[in-house]
Amino acid sequence: MQNPHVYALSNNSLMFDASHLSANDTLSIQNKIWSLASHCNTSGSFIDVVPAMNSLTLYLKQEIELAKWHEELLDIWNNIKPNEFVAKHHKIKTHYNGADLNYVANFHNLSIDDVINLHSKAQYAVLFLGFLPGFAYLNGLNEHLFTPRRAEPRLKVPKGSVAIGAEQTAIYPSDSPGGWHIIGHTDTPLFDAKLKKPCLIQPGDTLEFIPISVGK
Fold first, then answer.
1. Beta partners for 162?
2. Where along the chain do its domains lie?
3. With DSSP H G I counted as helix, E B as strand and the rest as coil, what are the percentages for the chain, rounded to 5?
């Protein structure tokens, strides 16, 4: 049986890489990553624990513990259960009024209502945060909505835009450039630097979109 790889990145940081194990079951591997991250967060040994796609970067408080954790991480991984991670569920009220909603519908030979139903009926898992603070990459988009990214990215995508890019969907937490197709908008704030926990949504959480208006 293959194991993840563990690398020392510096005198006080480690990379735990399970990406080569995820070819057939990305979400199951990601669940274990979240459980491992939760375990490490409660250990008191780390300054920061950063989950990514099938990997985990860990920053130790003390360099002397590097060798210890380098050896122990695989043992913890082999004994940890995916359901040891406790997720939060978020209901995101969404106006389905995006500039690319008609394009996505036409691309798939669907009606606007079809796109909204397919997008809002799914329950999504937050794989990881990246690109922007609070930008959550979501797993669970219906395959009938998989849409290649825009050939020409926009210079400014408005804060709160709900968008589709290839096989994923996401919400832009702030104004930024972006190449995903905008199908809607939410007023739910996803990032506030003044808060103790600035990101509303965390890796491993689940999410659903609640339609509250169409074309408004």
1. 171, 184
2. 5-84, 89-214
3. 25, 35, 40
